[in-house]
Amino acid sequence: MMRLRLKRNYRVHSPKRAFGGKRAGWVCLTALLVCLLCNLTACHGSKGLPEFEIPESFDTTKEYEITFWAKNDTNKSQTMIYEKAISDFEELYPNITVNLRLYTDYGKIYNDVITNIATNTTPNVCITYPDHIATYRTGVNQVVALDELMTDEAFGLGGSEVRFDAPTKDEIIPQFLSECQIDGHYYAIPFMRSTEACYINKTYVEKLGYTVPDVLNWDFIWEVSEAALAQDEQGNYLVNGQNVLIPFIYKSTDNMMIQMLKQKDAGYSTQDGEIEIFNDTTEELLYTIAEHGKSGAFSTFKISSYPANFLNAGQCIFAVDSTAGSTWMGSDAPLSDISEDKIVQFETEVRMVPQFDTANPRMISQGPSICVFNKADSGEVLASWLFAQFLLTNDVQTAYAKTEGYVPVTSKAQQSPEYQDYLSRAGEDNKEHYQVKMSATNLLLTHSEDTFVTPVFVGSASLRDAAGQMIENTVKAVRRNQTVDDAFMEKLESDVISLYRLDQLSETTSVTVGKKDLGPLPKTAKILLGTLAVVWIGILAYVLLQMVKSREKQDKHLIYKK
Amino acid sequence: MKKLLVLLMVCVLGASCVACGSNNEAAAPEANTQTEAVVATEAPADEKSEGVMSYEEYMAADLDTEVVVETYVQAKQSWWEDKATVYTQDQDGAYFLYNMACSEEDYEKLTPGTKIKVTGYKSEWSGEVEIIDATFEIEDGNYVAPATDLTGKLSDDTLINYQNQFFSVSGLTVEASTQQDGTEAAFLYNWDGSGADGDDLYFNVSDGTYTYAFTVESYLCPAGSEVYEAVKALNVGDTIDVEGFLYWYEGVNPHITSVTVK
Questions:
Q1: pLDDT score for A2
Q2: Cβ contacts of B66 within 8 Å, gap of 6 or more
Q3: Residue B169: domain span
């Protein structure tokens, strides 16, 4: 039976990811408004929402309805886990109703949150990335700082009044928790963690005369990829016998650039948001990438498609993608977008992303976190916090981690008998215990100390996009037979600065971080402040006038009395 | 004086309220674009301007080379950050324009039939041959392509020749799709049932020999559009006629724009 191939988020890089449509203009305007409001409120001291204070008790007789915006990796098991978590939580707290809204990408959540900040209609609980929270925080008191909530005796992590077996703060993996710290405060708790992995067609690597090393280095990747391009007279590649082969495909080129720079100890950005990415090392890396993009040894997801599709069809040898995408990788992958007749049998190996210094590997830490939005009713915020905390319980953590190559964020869940049993059964089947997924999971479990995150500041998401765009533009250029030279590099830098407004980032950053000169007041703020000053002067003048009149009247009255 | 002061206070308070106030209604997603009921128009004389490729030349061009085509808008999928994704077609074939540079103002001018000259790069993404990194200019001329009848041809090897074209197929039978909980339904939100109202719809149809998965692309035809609601109302066993665009993703992946239950 022939079956048309299914679509799996067919364009993650399409407007679908960037939420598309006419609404885009409105969102940009709203984001601008949010920033302007921040400027204004910073000037005259008013607040969008009062700062959240933990209520002394939780009113269980009051009905609370909270919204939870979550993301699933187009994986129906994850949806079911969210639904079960909500159901279990509502059983414990019958006065709290949780409404789930599902997204398939983080970008859309980010944009919808920004849209709703201006109207105070943010969700209560939201799956997010710290990069995004930096922008959410430009709305005054919109995101709840969780420091006190986490340690509150009654309602904190594992608190006395919490109706479930929650982890304590110490049981959250410290490195993952620290990633949720912005300006010295916790604005999120980690939910799941993943990293990137290189999924390798070991069969083809060996066919080419190489052995897959324990730790890949970049020279090895480029050398094998170039060697794989040998073709016969008909134009078929010798290694796979097909007329299509892209030996090395990278899914997230922003991660690629970020990790390469980190491994080289080169500049990306400072903690304060100073842009350092335009440096000699970046240029050197781009020249290397250009060389292999031109030969056809390297391509990207945005240019060609999902690495998994090529890998499983025997048309790719090194596919770099998230460990959270591991169930799509390999001949026996439980999920696939290509038809069965296209799948080629090969042995899959999973390794860390390629390194420059194999003795000191560095790889990105990524994965969703959870933030809680502030509301006028502190009881509602507390209900939200309790639900957020519930998402860290062992049942939710282990169930969700099993859906992909994710790692639970608490030692409590990682060490639980259920999770340990899961890990011990690697390769037992091609579903829950799919070997490639388990290898990807173990990769992060054994190398969590080698992971890193990039600094978070307003605009850090744009810098991340710019990092990837430089690779995309370079590869596109060489594929189109354009010359990649100094002039190209100069234009590339100028183009990405303009596209992602990087030249405007430092000013915005200073507003949030508060460590730099705030610069001149916006015009709107000046007008509003001027008007306020005039009004107050008028009020004072009027009051003084009345006082003088009253005094005169009193004096006259006294004279009259005398 | 008192009145003046009060008036000033009110104005300032009003401004503050506007800045800080809340609206209890969440910002509702706005439908991006929707296919409109359009009537096919007579094919204009197939004269290409100087330097413009014929469809045949376009198809013969290598990937990653610059192409210049004159074509006619058939439907719009989305606009975001000055980029538009558009289904276009001339008398000879179709061109899918992905993320073409386009201001919001110009996007409004792109209605079914609008003639445009497009300069971009021929590309392929998961089997979908398209034009990317393109710019365009509006020209005089109008053409709305009639639906190419592909009844009985869905499994033909020559189907690729119709890629991206507006097409129709008659007499298909709706088959069951399996939901997350294992139960059967006439359609799914997202390919695996993991989505919700507003997401892409997937439904299976049979031509009596083979089963095919069709998609209602939620940017092209969002929730509330006629086809989106029509698919939600389908029952397993219904006999339907469909129209849509012959999009490709690892094989044919039609974007359905019209469903008629017989």
A1: 31
A2: A480, B119, B120, B121
A3: 11-20+146-261
- Per CB-CB distance under 8 Å, the chain B contacts of A6 are 191-192, 202, 213, 253
Q: Which residue of B has its CA nearest to A300?
A: B125
Do B116 and B158 reside in the same domain of the chain? Answer: no
**B207 interaction partners in chain A (CB closer than 8 Å):** none
A201 contacts A225 by C-beta, under 8 angstroms: no
| In-domain check, residue B248 | yes
A contact residues 234-293, partner B, Cβ 8 Å cutoff = none
Please check the confidence at residue A3 and state whether its pLDDT lies above 60. Answer: no
Q: What tokens does A12 get?
A: 């993650």
Residue B78 with chain A: CB contacts under 8 Å? 14-16, 20-21
What is the tens place of the pLDDT at every residue in B165-216? Answer: 999 999 999 999 988 778 999 999 988 888 889 989 999 999 999 999 999 9
Q: Do A7 and B83 touch (CB under 8 A)?
A: no
Residue B109: how many other CB atoms lie within 10 Å: 12
Could you tell me which of B15, B208, B218, B127 has the C-alpha nearest to residue A5?
B127
Q: How confident is the model over A407-431, as pLDDT tens digits?
A: 999 999 999 999 999 999 999 999 9
Mark whether B83 and B155 lie in a shared domain: no
Distance from the Cα of A123 to chain B's closest Cα (Å) equals 9
Read off the pLDDT of residues A130-144 as tens digits, 9 standing for 90 and up: 889 988 988 888 999
Looking at the 3D structure of chain B, how many domains does it have? Answer: 2
In this complex, is the C-beta atom of A524 within 8 Å of any C-beta atom belonging to chain B? no
In a 13 Å sphere around the CA of B35, the CA atoms on its Cβ side amount to 28
Strands (E), A353-504: 363-364, 369-372, 407-408, 451-452
Q: Are B12 and A532 an interchain contact pair (Cβ–Cβ within 8 Å)?
A: yes
With 90 as the cut, is the pLDDT of residue A120 above it?
A: no
pLDDT tens digits for A478-537?
A: 999 999 999 999 999 999 999 998 988 755 543 332 233 344 555 555 666 677 777 777
The chain B residue lying nearest A142, using CA atoms, is B20
- In which residue are the tokens 């950050």 written? B81
Q: Which domain-ending residue is among B115, B142, B169?
A: B142
Answer yes or no: do B134 and B166 share one domain. no
| Burial tier of B171 (Cβ tally within 10 Å: 0-12, 13-18, 19+) | middle
B187 in the same domain as B130: no
What pTM does this model have?
0.83
- Identify all chain B residues contacting A48, using CB atoms and an 8 Å cutoff: 20
Position A20 scores a pLDDT of 31
Domain boundary among B142, B164, B180: B142
Q: Is B156 in the same domain as B84?
A: no
User: SS3 letters for A217-272?
Assistant: EHHHHHHHHHHCCCECCCCCECCCCCCCCCCEEECCHHHHHHHHHHHCCCCCECCC
Q: In what order do the strands lie in the sheet with A125-128?
A: A96-103, A64-71, A125-128, A369-372, A189-190
Specify whether the CB–CB gap between A322 and A444 falls below 8 A: no
Distance from CA of A88 to the nearest CA of B (A): 18
With respect to residue B44, please indicate whether it lies within any of the assigned structural domains. Answer: no
CATH assignment at residue B161: 2.40.50.140
* Residue B108 is assigned to a structural domain of this protein: yes
In terms of Cα–Cα distance, which of B45, B132, B32 is closest to B75? Answer: B32
Same domain, B186 and B240: yes
Residues B87 and B131 in one domain: yes
| Residues B133, B239 within the same domain | no
Question: Residue holding tokens 């990633």?
Answer: A179
Q: Give a yes or no: residue B86 inside a domain.
A: yes
Mean pLDDT over A386-400 rounds to 98
